[in-house]
Amino acid sequence: MEDLEDTLMADDFGFNSTGLQRAVDLLHRYLAEKGLPRPAVRAIGSADRLPEQLPASGIGADRALEAIGQEMLGGSSRLGHPGFFAHMDPPTPWLTWAIAMWNAALNQNLLHPDTSAAARTLEQRAIGWLALAFGMDGGHLVPGSTVANLTALWAARELAGVEEVVASTAAHLSIRKAATILNLRFRELPVGPDQRLQPDTLGDLSRAALVLTAGTVAAGVIDRLEAGSPARWRHVDAAWGGALRLTQFKSRLDGIERSDSVAFSPHKWLFQPKECGAVFFRNTAAAHQVLSFGGAYLAAPNIGLLGSHGANATPLVATMLAWGRVGIARRIEHCLGLADQLARLVEAEPRLELFAAPSTGIVLWRPRNADVRDVRARLVDTFVSLATVDGELWLRSVAANPNASASLVVDRVLAAASSRH
User: Fold this and answer.
1) Minimal CA–CA distance to 341: which of 333, 331, 330?
2) Exposed, middle or buried, 310 (CB in 10 Å: 0-12/13-18/19+)?
3) Which long-range contacts (CB under 8 A, 24 or more apart) does 244-252 make?
């Protein structure tokens, strides 16, 4: 029995070239299929072929790969499909797939220096490369900008004594969440017709953290980032639009360098796998000091909200190193060009309506005299999202997919709008 157990453990945790090659082969098979982009929410599919209860005896690694491959690989949205012009979720470069496999194999825990010496150094390098673009002097990685916003406002409460969070109605819902968690008052301000926060509505900011947005979720607009200088703390949620600081269009975010903190999501326009976000501070030493906790078992202070966390910086560092500053800028600028191309096609087509010229790669548009939701439901071989602005429903196309085809999306929307007649 012990020999059998030893064999099983060796098979599970040792290097298995055949099994790894099988996983790669399955990935290649499913991604090579020329199918339609899957909807974000799927109907009942292959999951009903899996047992509802965990079986007493396992089916083996090879059969498990096949079963999960049918469900996950075969039933997921193709974010890199030419017809996918929908969300802030990009396809990821193959380099990150390889690094993600290394991460799973090594299972580094950045809570402890002795379990992740290399990974901790790589995270510091990633932060160092990115922070300066925002005028910040450091920070740390988090699973996304929801945690980044919470962490920044936590630092604002501890360092600046803020009692209130002020943001616009177009701010991300994580801002209200953070205020609730931190037991801070939340004051929501109206936006103008351009969906930007209006500086003349700010009111008293003497005890407030003002949150400005660089790339709102619905329309992608950028608040006036120089607004609110009297605020006790100024935070910029640049989860989406922050990537512009790495391009020739960096001036669109002028003023961000005067903020006290910035949230940024490399898993958006830096094309990283999910759960790769960052929070930056203008005075990182002070912020990290109030966000640090220790324990008798820790060899280094635990900074921020997370305890254990993995080596999410490794794919990020590899991607930036592979592409360099020029390559990063070129890819983001290409996506901006796709958004501009879509906007021009919409403006040139009398049957379509454009909300506004895009500034951060997000296009709101719709067919005239048609039910927007019905048109979206009729789309074939393409996928766009929806957004409501001032009570009106729009198609929302986000230029996160470098392979997206603006002409394909426009043709399909026009076809769907015509098919209802």
Assistant:
1) 333
2) buried
3) 244/214, 244/332, 244/360, 245/133, 245/134, 246/133, 246/325, 246/328, 246/329, 246/332, 247/329, 247/332, 247/333, 247/336, 248/329, 248/333, 249/333, 249/336, 250/133, 252/222, 252/359, 252/360
Instruction: Work out the angle between the directed axes of helices 145-160 and 173-181 (0-180°, nearest 10).
Output: 40
- CA nearest neighbour of 280 among 302, 301, 256: 256
Rounded Cα distance between 234 and 165, Å, is 10
pTM surpassing 0.85? Answer: yes
**Residue 114: its pLDDT value, please?**
86
Strands 261-264 and 302-303: unpaired
pLDDT for residue 3:
57
Taking the C-alpha atoms of residue 130 and residue 325, their distance in angstroms, rounded to an integer, is 11
Contact 118, 313 (CB under 8 A): no
With tokens 């997921």, the residue in question is: 76
Helix axes 17-31, 61-68, angle to 10 degrees: 20
Instruction: Tell me the DSSP string of 255-266.
Output: TGGGSSEEEE-H
Helical pair 117-131 and 313-348, crossing angle rounded to 10 deg: 40
The answer for residues whose C-beta is within 8 angstroms of residue 226's C-beta and 6 or more apart is 254, 255, 258
Instruction: Give the DSSP H/E element, type plus range, for residue 345.
Output: helix 313-348
**Beta strands 352-354 and 302-303, pairing class:** unpaired
Which secondary structure element, helix H or strand E, spans residue 396, and what is its range?
strand 392-398
The predicted pLDDT at position 288 comes to 96
CB count in 10 Å sphere of residue 1: 5
pLDDT at position 170: 96
Return the pLDDT at 285: 97
Q: Which residues of the chain register pLDDT less than 50?
A: 1, 39-46
pLDDT confidence of residue 395: 98
Pairing of strands 292-293, 302-303: antiparallel
Copy the structure tokens of residue 95: 């380099």
- Check: CB of residue 99 under 8 Å from CB of residue 276: no
The conformation of residue 191, written as its DSSP 8-state character, comes to B
For residues 148 and 142, give the distance between their C-alpha atoms in angstroms, rounded to a whole number: 6
